């Protein structure tokens, strides 16, 4: 209803060349007509005592013991849920993924429709998701950095940071006596298995945070070991079977051996390296006695139909372990009625994308009606991006991509089937009402978009993921939130709802502010998502030596409203910057910077400067105090002058005597604080051309509703 009372105003800015930097102004708005009679007595301004007192009241949390069921997939992008595809015009009259259980969960949850992973690669994404800390703070910036022998190569940059990591599982287990179990893909440092002696300690105690994390199918008992892998769990599940399963390929067919489970499968698309090759062709590179190039031998190159029955898929076996765990957590007297936390981490639809026949066959007959984005058909736009299309030209073939999508859709539906079993188990046990259910994924999948496969970019298909949260009577059902959010905030949200907010020392902030509509942008813009990448690994030797060079890829993405900026963390980097308007260009085929930077309009430049200023503010908040994660060059192995300085200095577009972040400043949804609706918005104004510094000496509001606003909080020198 507040939208009906949006004011009609004009904003006038007068400036003189006297002060320095960017100036911000905040605005407070009381839109509800029923409170207009109280205007004379209202205290205004984002720093008023009334607002602070109300924020404290809103932060009081209940200590009711909630259970936590945390379900995640690997490499499932945001639009691979049937209910979401039903809302997107490009999927109209197209074959949609069948996910009845996720559709039902979405109807019972609050869903975050523009949710971004902190890092679009497995281990870094999981490390930020489970700890709520930035990549710079966790130290896990590549997949290999979860391995102790790798991160110990550099104490300052990696080892010391990783030793300080603390997951929400560790907090719940140690601080609130939760019984915690975890099944499926881990891809995190082993230290997160164990309790610490305190949130600030770097040593581990003998007690585990996770009671069990695997299942001995042969002996039908749960077990724990700190080197568990989904591949090994699948082998255990298959080996426990008394059924004789065929391991040899049929020579008269095109069958190949799946490198994941070592059983036959049939390649379904030319994107699979061995499509059309003789049965049983080894997937080996030339430097190891094979016939393929190294880039042709990864998991991404294995796509097709499995020869194994449905009950021997990785998804099915993991679900069996998780269902056993739910029975144990809910019904076992050994738990002494303690609250529990269960993480179910499905490996699908991550490669190898080999799906069981039941689901594969269904989509094979429907593949002609799959939606294929225009960025698959035409990849000429990639010349104006910092990324390259895949070396395999078949990824730009619509027919080949549709054949690939068969396996991807099939894997998603199979996961959905087993998620339904888990949720029904909760219902049958009467545990639904007191269990916080979260569903998300670590990152997305290109699936041919931009001529690419896999993840690792800041394109929507790679970086944007689903997020649903269900807690009956406390989290609204069927609610959609369209504000950009980040996976770094999930940790804080779990501690918030379970009554453990006092132990939150993360970099994130609870998403309750959007669920309860209590966000007012108190001291900064809270409706911004930032993501990171840094693909450098440590190398052996004295000093801080890393593979690759700083800034050889985009390192930061910042999203505000419909705008997205990507930028490297080196001012002089030749890497192209990117600016997209997602509303006007949903497939990100028109980079407004890069080759277009020199001809960019003043409005485009103002938006690029705006997003860059928001990124700098974010880095300053996440800087770790005296540690200086984003300001100290040592954390970039001595390359550059520190992220904050480098980003401030980078400018590949034209300089302007005056730039403004918004020609129209949209007022977001206000929050009801006491009897007053409050909302702060921020306007950025700056100068980048040579000459005297810019200063703002007056801003005036004109219009019949101008009295609803208070201009205050000006800050200089950004």
Distance between the termini: 36 Å
Low-confidence stretches: 1-63, 198-205
Quickly give the structural class. Answer: alpha+beta
- Helical run tally: 18
Strand order of the largest sheet: 6-14-3-16-18-4-19
Give a count of the beta strands, DSSP E runs of length 2 or more: 30
Main sheet? Answer: 7 strands, mixed
- The geometry reads as globular
Strand content: 15-25%
**Nearest-angstrom radius of gyration?**
26 Å
What is the residue-averaged pLDDT? Answer: 89
- Measured as a percent range, the helix fraction is 10-25%
Walk me through the structure.
There is one protein chain. Helices cover 24% and strands 17% of the residues. Strands 6-14-3-16-18-4-19 form a seven-stranded mixed sheet, with helices on both faces. The protein has a four-stranded antiparallel sheet with strand order 25-28-2-30, covered by helices on one side. It has a four-stranded mixed sheet with strand order 11-12-13-15. The model is unreliable at 1-63 and 198-205 (pLDDT under 50).
Short structural description:
By secondary structure, this protein is an alpha+beta fold.
Can you lay out the helices and strands and say which pair or pack?
Elements (H helix, E strand, L loop, with lengths): L9 E7 L6 E4 L22 H10 L8 E7 L8 H4 L14 H8 L2 E3 L2 E2 L5 H10 L3 H4 L9 H4 L3 H9 L4 H9 L2 E6 L9 E3 L7 E5 L5 E3 L4 E3 L6 H10 L16 E2 L6 E4 L35 E4 L7 H18 L8 E6 L7 E3 L1 H8 L9 H4 L20 H31 L6 E7 L18 H4 E2 L1 E4 L8 E3 L3 E2 L3 H8 L14 H4 L12 E5 L23 E5 L2 E5 L10 E4 L20 H20 L21 H7 L9 E2 L10 E3 L2 E3 L3 E5 L8 E8 L9 E4 L3
Parallel strand pairs: 3-14, 3-16, 4-19, 5-20, 6-14, 13-15
Antiparallel strand pairs: 1-29, 2-28, 2-30, 4-18, 5-17, 7-8, 9-10, 11-12, 12-13, 16-18, 21-22, 22-23, 23-24, 25-28, 26-27
Helix pairs in contact: 10-13, 11-13, 17-18
């Amino acid at each position: 209803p507040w939208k009906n009372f949006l004011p009609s105003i004009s904003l006038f800015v007068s400036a003189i060349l006297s002060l320095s930097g960017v100036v911000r102004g905040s605005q407070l708005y009381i839109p509800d007509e029923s409170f207009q009679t109280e205007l004379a007595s209202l205290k205004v301004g984002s720093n008023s005592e009334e607002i602070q007192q109300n924020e404290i009241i809103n932060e009081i949390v209940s200590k009711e013991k909630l259970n936590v069921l945390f379900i995640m997939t690997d490499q499932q992008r945001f639009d691979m849920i049937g209910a979401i595809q039903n809302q997107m015009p490009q999927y109209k009259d197209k074959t949609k993924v069948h996910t009845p259980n996720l559709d039902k969960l979405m109807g019972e949850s609050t869903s975050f429709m523009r949710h971004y992973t902190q890092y679009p690669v497995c281990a870094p994404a999981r490390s930020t998701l489970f700890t709520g800390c930035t990549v710079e703070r966790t130290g896990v910036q590549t997949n290999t950095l979860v391995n102790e022998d790798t991160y110990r190569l550099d104490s300052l940059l990696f080892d010391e940071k990783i030793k300080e990591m603390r997951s929400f599982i560790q907090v719940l287990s140690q601080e609130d006596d939760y019984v915690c179990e975890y099944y499926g893909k881990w891809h995190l440092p082993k230290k997160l298995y164990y309790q610490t002696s305190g949130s600030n300690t770097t040593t581990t105690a003998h007690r585990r945070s996770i009671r069990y994390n695997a299942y001995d199918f042969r002996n039908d008992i749960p077990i724990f070991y700190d080197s568990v892998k989904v591949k090994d769990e699948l082998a255990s599940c298959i080996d426990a079977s008394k059924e004789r399963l065929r391991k040899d390929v049929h020579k008269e067919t095109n069958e190949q051996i799946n490198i994941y489970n070592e059983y036959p499968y049939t390649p379904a698309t030319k994107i699979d390296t061995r499509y059309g090759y003789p049965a049983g062709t080894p997937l080996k590179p030339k430097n190891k006695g094979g016939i393929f190039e190294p880039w042709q031998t990864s998991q991404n190159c294995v796509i097709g139909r499995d020869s194994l029955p449905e009950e021997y898929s990785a998804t099915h076996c993991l679900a069996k372990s998780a269902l056993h765990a739910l029975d144990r957590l809910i019904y076992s007297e050994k738990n002494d009625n303690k609250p529990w936390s269960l993480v179910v981490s499905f490996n699908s639809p991550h490669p190898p994308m080999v799906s069981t026949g039941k689901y594969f066959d269904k989509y094979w007959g429907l593949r002609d009606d799959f939606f294929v984005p225009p960025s698959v058909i035409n990849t000429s736009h990639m010349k104006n991006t910092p990324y390259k299309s895949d070396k395999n030209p078949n990824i730009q073939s619509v027919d080949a991509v549709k054949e690939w999508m068969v396996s991807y859709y099939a894997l998603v539906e199979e996961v959905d089937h087993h998620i339904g079993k888990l949720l029904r188990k909760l219902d049958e046990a009467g545990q639904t009402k007191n269990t916080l259910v979260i569903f998300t994924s670590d990152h997305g999948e290109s699936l041919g978009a931009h001529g690419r496969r896999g993840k690792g970019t800041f394109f929507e298909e790679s970086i944007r993921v689903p997020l649903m949260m269900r807690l009956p009577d406390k989290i609204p059902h069927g609610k959609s939130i369209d504000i950009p959010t980040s996976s770094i905030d999930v940790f804080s949200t779990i501690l918030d709802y379970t009554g453990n907010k006092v132990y939150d020392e993360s970099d994130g902030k609870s998403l309750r502010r959007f669920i309860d509509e209590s966000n007012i942008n108190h001291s900064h813009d809270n409706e911004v998502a930032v993501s990171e990448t840094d693909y450098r690994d440590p190398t052996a030797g004295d000093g801080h030596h890393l593979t690759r060079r700083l800034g050889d890829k985009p390192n930061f993405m910042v999203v505000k409203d419909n705008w997205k900026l990507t930028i490297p963390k080196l001012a002089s980097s030749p890497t192209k910057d990117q600016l997209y308007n997602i509303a006007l260009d949903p497939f990100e085929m028109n980079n407004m910077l890069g080759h277009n930077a020199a001809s960019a309009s003043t409005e485009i430049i103002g938006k690029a400067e705006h997003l860059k200023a928001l990124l700098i503010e974010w880095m300053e908040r996440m800087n770790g105090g005296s540690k200086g994660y984003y300001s100290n060059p040592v954390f970039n192995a001595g390359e550059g002058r520190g992220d904050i300085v480098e980003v401030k200095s980078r400018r590949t577009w034209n300089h302007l005597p005056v730039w403004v972040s918004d020609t129209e400043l949209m007022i977001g949804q206000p929050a009801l604080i006491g009897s007053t609706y409050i909302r702060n918005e921020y306007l950025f104004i700056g100068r980048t051309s040579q000459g005297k510094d810019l200063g703002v000496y007056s801003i005036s509001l004109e219009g019949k509703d101008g009295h609803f606003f208070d201009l205050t909080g000006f800050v200089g020198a950004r």
